What we know:
Blueprint: E1 4-10, H1 37-52, H2 57-75, H3 105-120, H4 126-143, H5 149-170, H6 175-182, H7 237-250, H8 254-262, H9 272-287, H10 292-320, H11 325-332, H12 352-368, E2 373-375, H13 377-380, E3 389-391, H14 394-407, H15 413-433, E4 436-442
Antiparallel strand pairs: 1-4, 2-3
Helix pairs in contact: 1-2, 1-3, 1-4, 1-9, 2-3, 2-9, 2-10, 3-4, 3-5, 8-14, 9-10, 9-12, 10-12, 10-15, 12-14, 12-15, 14-15
Amino acid sequence: MTLKRLLFLFLLLCATVAPVYAQDEADAPLVRDLDPRYATEWIDLVYLRVQAQAESPTTSSRVYGYAGVTLYESLVNGMPGYVSLTEQIGHMPVFPRPEAAAYDWISVMDSTMTTVLPTVFTAVTPETVAAFEELRDAHTKERLKESDAETIERSLAYGVVLGEAIANWAADDGFADVNARGKDYVLPEIEGGYVLTDDAKKPNQPYWGEMRPFVLERGSTCHVPIDVPYSTDPDSVFYAQALEVMQTGRRLTNFQRETSRYWIDTPGVTGAPGGHWISITNQLTEQLGLTLDEAAWMHAMVGMSVADAFISGWWSKYQTMVIRPVTYIQENISRGWGPYVETPPFPEYVSGHSIVSAAAAETLTRLFGPQFFEDRTHVIYKHEEPLVRSYTSFEAAASEAAISRLYGGIHYRSAIENGLRQGRCVGSAVSDVFNLQPAVLDK
């Protein structure tokens, strides 16, 4: 029986782009012939270590971005028809290429991921390093049954060289600077501006918008200007939006409460907001029957979209400094009101869930078109509430994730709707750089 599924192709930017090295199939299997579960296991482990280390929404997005790029770059030389991202991202250096010899691409991937990943966590723990090494070693034992020791050794050695080059490039993205500066940040006093909702906390990563994006020209590239000016006038749009948040919170249905919890993605309890979409992406490998090369390309695209979405969103947050609903409502409408979920420690506009969800959904839609899918994130990672949901499209899931923030009482409607617009811009920017187009293939 012939099954049709939407897959993706990308066009070379110009005829002079250097082709990647692809070994003779007689020497060793190409990436497309290898089991995609090896990549799935790596992404699962990255999510689990992000969760265990309680990486923030911003720092986790950086980890996911580099994980996707590293996965792709470690395999691309065994993927005929694909080109390295170094040919397509201007600030990415040309990474070392393998010799004209046989390679076991799983071993290359294992070694490269083990080299890069510990360098992109905020403060990597010994447990995280050990977990990466354990997965690499387990895969190596498996691959020795499929390939000779000399090829495995060559592959592991090349992965270290490639990984060090990627790690050096990652170290120059501005993280060290913005992380250090953020520790001394003092919130400006602005009439009607954002104030912390918990005195024990500090604002999360106030300079994150200055980070080097993967694809966007800068953090401000996709910014959607706020279109609802601050006002305490009961007849103003701003007041009406706050009133909507309060009234919605007071009459939440069971479904709305569950939706809010489903997408809450608390750091340390889950793999953070961006991680939810990385999990969805990882599940698509099996649901859509992707080959390893297709899965690697997908993870690179979605990882970069997630990372750039948070750079874009945090640029907007600390430029607009919009007051959170709980503060505004308690000061101007109802002193005793409280949101259904805890308000996070950063400005309100735009909604982070909205921008990252729309960016990931736009990228996945460009890759595969509208797809029915099931999200088992909370079951896979054994979260406290093992909820499962199905969606008719990636956009439908993104819209639900976005509106969940209104149900939770932490965002106004304008931040949600404009966040979706801004996220689609980010996803489009990432997709447009690589000239994606969906293609129907017979399998």
